[in-house]
Each structure stands twice: as structure tokens, then as C-alpha cells.
Please model this.
Amino acid sequence: MGGMDIAVIALVVLAILVIITMVKTVPQGYRYTVERFGRYTKTMEPGLNIIIPFIDRIGAKMNVMEQVLDVPTQEVITKDNASVSADAVAFYQVLNAAQAAYQVSDLQNAILNLTMTNIRSVMGSMDLDELLSNRDTINEKLLRVVDDAANPWGIKITRVELKDIAPPKDLVDAMARQMKAEREKRAQVLEAEGSRNAQILRAEGAKQSAILQAEGQREAAFRDAEARERLAEAEAKATQMVSAAIAAGDVQAINYFVAQKYTEALASIGTANNQKIILMPMEASALIGSLGGIGAIAKEVFGDNQAPAPRQRQSTTPRTGPASGPFEPQGQ
Model:
């Protein structure tokens, strides 16, 4: 092989090396910075890129996909001097590869320290109760503060989330007792309110019942008075009719009136609860005569004057016993 051949081979090898150093491939999700003589010139996008060999070189290979950064546990003193432990997680994304590569050294460590510092600052400005009950508010404050601080680095902080907030064990026990006391107090208040409402409802029911009972008694008294009024009117009418019959010379009318009262008195005596034996000095003929008088009066009152009145047997036997009653039957 002559010198000419060696020179050709050397040129081919050199050309291959030049092509290799000139052509660069950037994978998806990454950005490469290009430096010329140590100075940043451009950023290569994903795909096939060409640089000037021996003059340009690849500076930083930046991952522009969203990345997660685990924040270690931090001891935080709250505003009311309670010590709590908190750990978090942060999500960030590189928006400007050149700024992320040349504006800050050790990007992940910078974001981590920035997040830890702001966790202490935000949580330390809050009371323990506010800290435990407003986790979303804390996440929002952390995101806003860390994102503003990382913005000059070409970084976008997408999320900052507190994973856990752990107070000391004795403080947790005290909080559990407080919660139990609050729940017992709430239960007693609810029970007292329920008892009060039940008493109010019972009182209203008793009041309504008394009102309805009084109205019923008033209606019953009104009906009873009306019935007595009707009875008095009927009795007055009957007395008026008897008086008219007596004035007309009908002797049977007085017998009817007396027999009615006599019969009512006997019925009252017979139905008395404290009477077991009743001795009545009367004759059967007297009562029959009274009934005959009642029948005659009834026929005259109702207008049946054609049928003869029943004749009463005149007793001719002298009486040896006491008087039979307040009236004597009349013969026809």
C-alpha cells in the first residue's frame, strides 16, 4: 500500500469523525444547550441537529419533562410554639433549558432547599389548629412562594403538596381528649335541646287537648241546656193543655196530671240503689182507675171522642186500711 492510499484512508476516517461530531440527535423530552468556545449559543430541540465540529460542543442536557422531588421531613415550630413534623413533595418542570443550566448550580438541590425553607416559613406563621385544618391553604401558599422564587431559573413549580403533618404524641393525646370533650358537650346540648322540644310539644299537645275538651264541654252544655229548654217547653205545653181541660170542666184532666206525677215518683223510688224492699200502701184499683183516667184524657187530647171511655168500678166496700192514694177513681 502506497502513501497515496494511506492518505485517502486517513481522509475518509477524518470525514467520518467530522460527520459524527457534527450530527447530534436529541431525544424527545430533552433539550441540549450548545456552547461555542465555552459560550452558550443555542438550544437544540428534539430530533436531528447539526453543529460545527471542533468549534461547538454540547453544554447541558436538560430534562424538560415534569419531575418530582421528594422533600425530607422537617421539624417546624408553629406560631403557638407547638412542634410538628412535616414532609412534602414538589413537582417542577424546566421551561427554559438555558436558564436552568446557567442561572443556577445544582438545580434539584436548589429547588429542594427553597421548598424546605418556605415550608418552615409558611407553617411557622400559623397556629397548630389552623395548620392541621388548612392544608390546602398551606399548599397554595407554598406553591406561590416557591414558584415565584424559581421563576428566574426557567423553572415552573407545578405543585407542592404536604404529605403528612405529625404533631408529638402527647399533643395528639391532648387533642383526642379535647375532641372527645367537645363531642360529649355537643351530645349533651343536643340531648337537652331534644328534651326541651319534647316538653314544648307535650305542653302544646296538652294545651290543644284542654282547648278541645273545653270546647266539647261547652258544646255539650249548650246541647244539654237546649234539651232542657225543649223539655220545659213541652212540659209547659202539657200543663197548659191540662189546665185548659180542667177549666173546661173535665175532671179527668186533674186525674191524669196527678197520676203522671205519682207514677214518676214510684219509678224513682223503685230504681233507687239503696232501696231493697219497698212497702206501698195503695190499692190496685186506684192505679187502674188512674190509668183509665190517663186513657180518657189521651183520647180527648188526640180527638178520639167516638170510643167510650172505660168505666171505673165504684168501690162500695168501706175501706179498713189507710188511704190508697192522693186521688179517687171516678165512675162513668
